[in-house]
C-alpha cells in the first residue's frame, strides 16, 4: 500500500494549487478504497460503506479541483462561485453532494449523479445498517450493501484510470504512490 503518512501532511490549498490538491485527494481516494475492501473482507460492511463514501467525497473534490476553471465558468453569480471556492470544493458537504455530482456529470463525467446517489445510499447504510423495512436504509441486508460497495469501487477506479490519472500525469502530479495504490486496488477488485 502507498505511504499512508502522506495523508497526514497538510493538504495543498485548492485555490492556490488545484492540481496538488487533486493529487492529494486522489491518493486519499485510493487508500480509502483499499481500506473499504479490507473492512469488507473482514466482514465490517458498515465500516466499508463509510470508507467508500469518504472515497467518493474525495474523488468529487479532486474532480472539482481538476475542473475548477470549467466549474467556475458554469456560474454567473459571484455568490455561487464563492460558495464553490470556500465550501463546495474544500468541504464537499454531504448535503450538497448530489448537486456537486450533477455539476460533475454536466462537465462530461457520465453517470456521476447515479454513482453519487449510490454513495449517499451507502452513507445511510453506514449509520443505520441493514433495514428490511427500508425506513432508514435502502439495503435490506449486508449482501446488498456489499454489492454496491464493490460496484462503486469499480466505478471510481474506472474514473481515476480513464479521466483523472491522465490529467494528473499531464500536470506532473501522478506519482509512484498513486500508481502503486491504483495497481493494488485493481488487483483486489480483479480488474
Brief overview, please?
This protein is mainly alpha-helical and 191 residues long. Helices cover 71% and strands 0% of the residues.
Into how many domains do the coordinates divide?
1
| Amino- and carboxy-terminal Cα gap | 17 Å
Q: Structural class, from secondary structure content?
A: mainly alpha
What count of helical segments does DSSP give? Answer: 8
Average pLDDT, to the nearest integer? Answer: 95
What integer value in Å does the Rg equal?
16 Å
User: Roughly what percent helix?
Assistant: over 70%
Unreliable spans are: none
Helix/strand order: HHHHHHHH
Measured by DSSP, the beta-strand proportion falls in under 5%
Main beta sheet: strand number and arrangement? none
* Strand segment tally: 0
Form type: globular
Please explain how this structure is put together.
- The protein is mainly α and 191 residues long.
- It has helices spanning 18-41, 45-66, 68-73, 78-91, 97-106, 112-128, 142-170, 176-189.
- It has one domain.
- It has 8 helices and no strands.
- Helix 2 (45-66) packs across helix 4, helix 2 packs parallel to helix 7 and helix 7 runs antiparallel to helix 8 (176-189).
- It is globular.
- The mean pLDDT is 95.
- This is PaREP1 family protein.
- InterPro entries: PaREP1.
